């Protein structure tokens, strides 16, 4: 099995890694003989999926179609959002489980500080 990479951030997605795959192929309709292209597998890591789904629609008909599919996945079940947060938390404890955990300033609420 070959390792794939997230189309957006180029993160390696090895076997067993959580990701979203978009499969795309082209096929003639109403033309004989019917022709069909090879299938392409496009992968996104959970963080990029959530980020894409929450952002504005991209330009181009194919991009919008893929964006709508990703939005449907992100909105249909919290598992994809959970996978994105788990990965972010795993990066040297970047995001604590709560807004105050690990804070050097007690009483400060919120998850992010810019």
Describe the structure.
The structure is a single chain. This protein has 114 residues and is an alpha+beta fold. It has one domain. Helix content is 32%, strand content 12%. The protein has three helices and four strands. It has helices at residues 46-54, 61-76, 79-90; strands spanning 4-5, 12-13, 20-24, 40-44. A two-stranded antiparallel ribbon has the order 1-2. Strands 3-4 form a two-stranded antiparallel ribbon. The longest helix has 16 residues, at 61-76. The chain is globular, with a radius of gyration of 19 Å. Residues 105-114 have low confidence and may be disordered.
Question: What descriptive keywords fit this protein?
Answer:
two-stranded antiparallel ribbon, disordered C terminus, alpha+beta, two-stranded antiparallel sheet, single chain, 114 residues
How is this fold's topology laid out?
Blueprint: E1 4-5, E2 12-13, E3 20-24, E4 40-44, H1 46-54, H2 61-76, H3 79-90
Antiparallel strand pairs: 1-2, 3-4
Helix pairs in contact: 1-2, 1-3
């Amino acid at each position: 099995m070959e390792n794939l990479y997230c189309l957006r951030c180029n993160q390696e997605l090895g076997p067993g890694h959580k990701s979203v795959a978009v499969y795309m192929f082209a096929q003639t309709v109403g033309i004989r003989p019917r022709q069909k292209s090879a299938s392409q597998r496009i992968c996104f890591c959970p963080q990029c999926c959530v980020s894409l789904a929450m952002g504005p629609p991209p330009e181009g008909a194919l991009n919008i179609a893929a964006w709508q599919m990703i939005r449907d996945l992100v909105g249909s079940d919290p598992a994809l959002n959970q996978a994105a947060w788990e990965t972010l938390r795993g990066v040297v404890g970047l995001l604590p489980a709560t807004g105050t955990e690990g804070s050097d300033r007690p009483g400060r609420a919120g998850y992010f500080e810019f």
